[in-house]
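On clarity, I found the account of how folds are encoded harder to follow than it need be. What matters is that the chain and its backbone geometry are given together, residue for residue. For the editor and my fellow referees, an illustration may be useful. For illustration, here is how one protein appears when written out as sequence plus structure tokens:

___
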Amino acid sequence: QAGSLFPALHRLEREGWIEGQWTTSPEGRRVRSYTLTASGRKQLVAERRQWECVVGAMTQVLEGES
């Protein structure tokens, strides 16, 4: 939903994890494009590690119930 996407993009940009720039689409419309910054890549690695821990814990719980 646009109501949650744009605030999330703005927050990520404020944190310095993404960088936005205005470009023109092939159709000639003005669009905002985002790229991941070096800081954003580091944050992504940290988030992935945390997510893997959650998945591992859930896997243990679910396999323990089998």
Observations:
- The radius of gyration is 18 Å.
- The longest strand covers residues 18-24.
- The first helix runs from residue 2 to 15.
- The helical segments are 2-15, 38-64.
